[in-house]
Design brief:
The structure is a homodimer. Chain A is an alpha/beta fold. In chain A, helix 4 links the parallel strand 3 and strand 4.
């Protein structure tokens, strides 16, 4: 039976046009874009074309503000560490939120160990940061605010525009981790008032291991990777040209098809949420109804373990996840779910459904039916659930 | 006319088998190797297979000691900065050489700006570091020695094994930038006595933007990219699986075909050196006859500019370079060539010929003939050369 992929937060399949562009690039054997000869210049032009496509997706008018990286994690590390180091003489205080991705958390933890002070803001039950909290946390030592654009576990979209107005007024650099947003929802680096924005190609059906960092002109930042003069001296290293070409094509298509994709995945999301009560009960939806990713539904199913649900659905060829693939192997409950107020037990019973362009209504039907069966089976053997039912009776 | 590529130091074409493996990977739409479900496990197995191939190429018995990166530059930055930061409490002194790649130089310059002390050793006329100089430079504050395996401008291979014996005896970490060696000449991380070794896939006809860092078990090092648990917690970020698959196949072939490739490129190199005097005079060969890369010839052609030679050869569809593509745009004479004792003028007249598996004797013939024509033309209009000739007459 065909595998139903409802784990698009972990990996998206490549679009046919992206595949073709990458295959053509493989056959082309491009030279090094930094080489002085004709073949080098040809490669440099191809690199520029991809940069323009990606810049357009961000509504960034100067493609030189786009730095290609090896993916979202590098972009985030580059943004946070690069800004902290370059501005350490001005101050040592950084503001973030409690629900960031591990790339942000661990970069900040590292900086903290070397003397930086971190303020981590709490979020409301929808997983949202209050812009006023950002304003209140700013001190004369604050050099950077890093708040994610959308959360990869709940789908919550943050009020980045409002936060950006505050940071801009106070002349403090603002980075947003938009890895799960760029290519999926409209992004405009100017409207958002951000100085740095991290993104990843695979979110918009480009290859993994390729991404980028928007760095507004004039932003004081150190490179993370130093050496050659590539990427306008902001990121050294011979480029992953095949991957970048794939990302360029993916960006072009994401921009062209933004509306139809939005309507496709949000239609499936609505169907799933509408029909879920007909299949299971006693669950919590962690994804806010307003301002959330159109393709993500986080469901905490009470009295059972999310890990067991994932494994049993996997046996029925349905792929979902309990959280970010980057956190696989961690036995601790998700810091994001605890931050929005879930109990440890409910957090452990959480599934993240990530819808994609390749999903159909049939996939949602198959998922709901299988979920009903799995949840019934697991609850039948759950002492917690039995106790709960006995108490109700 | 077919382009003759004698710029293999800047970029190598992909092998047909590597192309096919990457194309198959593109079609396969692998899941995220960190995902918990079956598709994720399949991707994780494929990642492991590539890691084993690469480990075998380094004669490394524990594949977990191989960390995949976005290329040589990331590997070098990771090794140098990661070791320096993680061992800063033990000491702040690092030893290197005067002829390293910019990735090493700029990483060390950055560390210097934050309080580390750098000793940069000079080299002899062959571009070689004297191991005794390393021993003499070690202090009780020394935490790292970083000396490249082979030089990308002269082809000089360093006495890494001897230097490694010294660092091992003194229990100091030793990194070698082997970006231009791995896959081209036999490398054995154990015989070399290194703790860290940087390499790049494109050197052995794998894709660009992919590489790795050998990190001996027990080496104290901080990750450069932090976030998820990928690469055994040594390098976060969703993997560039398509590129890594290509590198794995390239590594396997490099190991299998090492001898035949060595004999192919060194045969062409010998021919070029043997026949060069029949085509031009008054030049200096900067590549030592013993212990140098089998595919590299550095020629300083006196009384003319290397840049002009590159451009004129380019017009005849022959690609060569004056130096590392990573240093393109720099107008200064190469620090490597000045370090081996060349005058500024001779350094500026230098060509780096990088031979590859796709080159033929016909390519060398075409190059020599074209070079003869170009050099004659340029010298005819060179006031320097005219003056020199008048003085001789």
């Amino acid at each position: 039976m065909k595998i139903v992929n409802l784990d698009h937060l972990s990996a998206n399949p490549l679009l046919p046009e992206v595949k073709q562009a990458m295959i053509d690039a493989i056959h082309a054997d491009y030279a090094n874009p930094s080489s002085q000869h004709k073949s080098g210049e040809e490669a440099a032009e191809i690199l520029d074309r991809a940069r323009s496509s990606v810049a357009a997706l961000l509504n960034c008018s100067n493609p030189k503000e786009v730095v290609f990286t090896s993916g979202g994690t590098e972009s985030v590390n580059h943004a946070i560490k690069g800004v902290a180091w370059a501005n350490a003489e001005k101050g040592n205080h950084i503001i973030t939120s409690n629900i960031e991705h591990n790339a942000v958390i661990r970069s900040l933890k590292r900086l903290k160990s070397t003397g930086f002070k971190i303020t981590s803001l709490s979020v409301d039950a929808d997983g949202r940061v209050n812009p006023q909290d950002v304003a209140d946390a700013i001190t004369d030592k604050t050099i950077l605010v890093s708040i994610m654009h959308s959360n990869n576990e709940t789908g919550t979209i943050q009020p980045i525009e409002e936060i950006g107005r505050i940071t801009r007024a106070k002349k403090i650099l603002f980075h947003t981790d938009a890895v799960d947003s760029v290519g999926l929802v409209p992004i405009d680096v100017n409207r958002l008032n951000v100085d740095l924005l991290s993104f990843s190609s695979n979110t918009f059906y480009g290859p993994t291991g390729v991404g980028g960092l928007f760095v507004r002109r004039g932003t004081r930042i150190w490179p993370l990777l130093e050496g050659g003069v590539q990427e306008h001296n902001k990121r050294a290293g011979t480029e992953n040209l095949i991957g970048i070409i794939g990302m360029g094509v993916a960006a072009e298509l994401a921009r062209r098809d933004m509306e139809s994709r939005l309507s496709h995945v949000s239609g499936l999301k609505e169907k799933l949420l509408r029909e879920l009560p007909d299949h299971i009960d006693e669950y919590i939806i962690n994804t806010p109804a307003d301002a959330s990713l159109p393709n993500l539904v986080s469901i905490s199913i009470q009295y059972i373990e999310g890990e067991s649900v994932v494994l049993m659905l996997d046996d029925e060829d349905i792929a979902v996840s309990t959280r970010s693939a980057c956190a696989t192997g961690s036995l601790r409950a998700s810091h994001v779910l605890l931050s929005i107020g879930l109990s440890h037990a409910d957090a452990q019973g959480t599934l993240v459904v990530g819808l994609g362009m390749d999903n159909t209504e049939g996939d949602v039907n198959r998922f709901l039916k299988a979920l009903q069966h799995v949840v019934t089976t697991l609850r039948n053997i759950s002492p917690l659930y039995q106790k709960h039912k006995a108490a109700q009776a």
